Amino acid sequence: MAEPAPLSPGELEDRLEELLEACLSSRRTAASLAPGIAELARSEQAFVLHWAGVVARSSAELAYQFAALAPRALALVGERGAQAWLLRAMDVFDRETMYAASAALKDLPRFAQEWASASHAVRLEDAARVLELFLCGLSGRPLAVAADGEPWTDTQTVYLPARVGRFASREANFLALKAMAALAWAQARFGTFSDALGAALAARPESMRWAAFLEAVRLTARIGHALPGLARDLARLEAPLDAALEALVAPLRAPHATVADSLALAARCDPSRPPPAWCYVGPLFPDRVAAARVARLARERDAFRLVLARMRDERVDAAPSRSAGEGDARFSAAVSEPDVTGERAFQLYFDGVPVAPPADAANLVQSILQDLGELPPDYLEPAGPGAYRPATGPAAAPERDAAASPAEAGVAVHDEWDFARKHYRRGWCVLRSRDVHPGDPGFVRRTLEQYRGELAGLRRAFEALRGDDRVQRRQPYGEAIDLDAAVAGFADRRAGRELPERLFVRRQRTERSIAVMFLVDMSGSTKGWINDAEREALVLLAEALEVLGDRYAIYGFSGMTRKRCELFRVKRFDEPYGPAVRARIAGIAPQDYTRMGVAIRHVSGLLAREEARTRLLVTLSDGKPDDFGDEYRGEYGIEDTRQALVEARRSGIHPFCITIDAEARDYLPHMYGAANYVLVNEVRRLPLAVANVYRRLTA
Do 206 and 105 have their domain in common? Predict the structure, then answer.
């Protein structure tokens, strides 16, 4: 179908006057803008009018400048480039001043030059989440991704360039980022950062470039043995080697080659002659790796000893005749040589009997083995009496919590999604965290008395969730014969093969690995019965969760405008449920408005740092997102909240909403999904409904 005829200057003038009325004057008129836009195609005119309207919501002056420059921008960089040019200026406006945003718009020639080379580039910001999942799938050990000028790793974080645009296609540039990440993983997995590396580079720092290149040759060969498909991707980026250099590096392609072989060859290379430039090879920093490794080893040793303490106590409970400190029963371990992927199989023993650690501790053990190649004797000593109970799981990281604390304790700045722009407003919302002031000390006592009968039933129901027995088949030992394995073994024996060893079944007590964040609406509309019901619901839930043992935190949210968003701490993950938390629950009181997106983003960040198989974000609310003024109301607030929930899901968090808003069906299915919310029709039913919903979610 043919494109409609362009709008005339008069029609455009009318539309522009409607959009830009706030900034027009006798010298700045819509009539001066209309002729330039009239020369555009109808689709381009629609583009200009749409974005002028979007920008005018924030600044009519900036919208006027955009409309004046838009025809030239479209001619230089097309619609896609013009949108990127405008969004960059809007980001500047959000973070800085009108003057700075105006300068960014007027800098169109430089942007056009950058756009010509950047249209095929890949930004790390866009690829980081995919790369983090890729690295986690490779290693099992979570590796963060961050921006830096060159690719390198300290074995905790993989640092990659913020932008890669050296190739002519986005696919090739993304492949380069992926190759950098894969090499960093391989350096940690296949022994690059041994003590020998640090000593060699300290003695011969000039050989670092050759050592990094030769290690890349060795590691790409190791990747080829373990992951042939990934190796083929890497090979597409490698510059060919001349015959002499190929002969030199040939020993490094053997499966048994080590970093010592790479260092020996590096010592023979002329440091004044640069090695071949493979785009995914970066520098090595053994000193930074050593610092990260020391912190990780101490953390993982303590966490593993806590796992052993729990396992020991379970066996003491199962054999009451033996006390926790009685006899010579000890843990020991057998560790195999690494397989082709660098992973080592291990078997734990307690008092000479094979035992299996909880499933959520398997990655912890593999991380220790990746660093040390063994489980040293001091790692196999269970934590003694009085050891802390880790609130953040087996892989809790003290330095990670310290890094989070400044934002949590003071002020945090978050982006906000503008659905009209289809882009984030960078650094748009300012959120302050504070503790809830203690409330009426008698509130919790009255609530427990009022719901005494119901609470007893909740506790019994939650006790039933604490864990169940899972039957594990084809085990080397157990309580009964695995008939399926025995039949298959009998067939093997009749065929002349050896009888397999794994002929038993045993029951393994499953442990819950759940972290839950409760986010409570503290807006002014909760005043009265709703506030009372929310507080009663939290009391009942906390009392029942103490029976269950799940890790949970409680935060409230409110605020007024984007500059005064507030998050109220009621209970942190690492805080026990006691008098202080009860007093804060009693002190939850109505505040201002309901700007939900920023609160969801902040608490999702706190929840994502918890080591758990299941992470839940449960919001208690009485209405749709709202804030002072008209900007956040309606579709804008709903879309921002929905985007914040999408971000949470990408982080492995499962959001759910419990609401008493009778109109919830009009907007919650769009925000949370049709099956991820529940409407409680009567406020008085909220306390028991919250506990029952949680029980169903985690059963």
Answer: no
Helix boundaries (H) for 414-451: 442-450
The answer to whether position 395 is within a domain reads no
Residue predicted with more confidence, 279 or 318: 279
Question: Strands 504-509, 480-481: parallel, antiparallel or unpaired by DSSP?
Answer: antiparallel
423 contacts: CB under 8 Å, gap ≥ 6: 87, 90, 417
pLDDT of residue 469: 53
Q: Count other C-beta atoms under 10 Å from residue 342's C-beta.
A: 19
Number of structural domains in the chain? 5
For residue 464, give both structure tokens. Answer: 């039933």
State the number of CA atoms in the 13 A half-sphere of 357 facing the CB. 24
pLDDT tens string 367-385: 888 778 788 888 888 876 5
Separation CA 593–CA 527 (nearest Å): 12
Domain identity same for 128 and 74: no
Token pair belonging to 269: 């290379």
Give the Å distances, CA to CA, from 487 to 3, 475, 478, 503, 526.
73, 15, 17, 9, 64
- What size, in residues, is the chain? 699
What token pair was written down for 677? 């919310």
CA distance 645 to 597: 8
| Domain stop point among 329, 359, 385 | 385
Looking at residue 626, what DSSP letter applies?
A: B
- pTM score: 0.58
Closest among 593, 589, 453, 595 to 534, alpha carbons compared: 589
Domain that holds residue 619: 402-463+513-698
Taking all residues of the chain, what is their mean pLDDT, rounded to a whole number? 83
Whether residue 589 is found in the same domain as residue 442: yes
Beta strand 551-559 with 565-571 is antiparallel
Partner residues linked to 131 by β-bridges: none
Alpha helix (H) residue ranges in 428-528: 442-450, 452-463, 483-494
Q: Same domain, yes or no, for 316 and 449?
A: no
Crossing angle of helices 442-450 and 529-548, in 10° steps, is 80
Inside any domain, residue 3? no
Angle value at C-alpha 270, between 268 and 272, nearest 5 degrees:
160
| Predicted local distance difference test score (pLDDT) of residue 520 | 93
Averaged pLDDT, 287-304: 86
Is residue 4 included in any domain, yes or no?
no
What is the C-alpha separation between 355 and 366, in angstroms, rounded? 16
Q: How far is residue 168's CA from residue 189's CA, in Å, rounded to a whole number? A: 32
Least confident segment among 130-144, 203-217, 464-478: 464-478
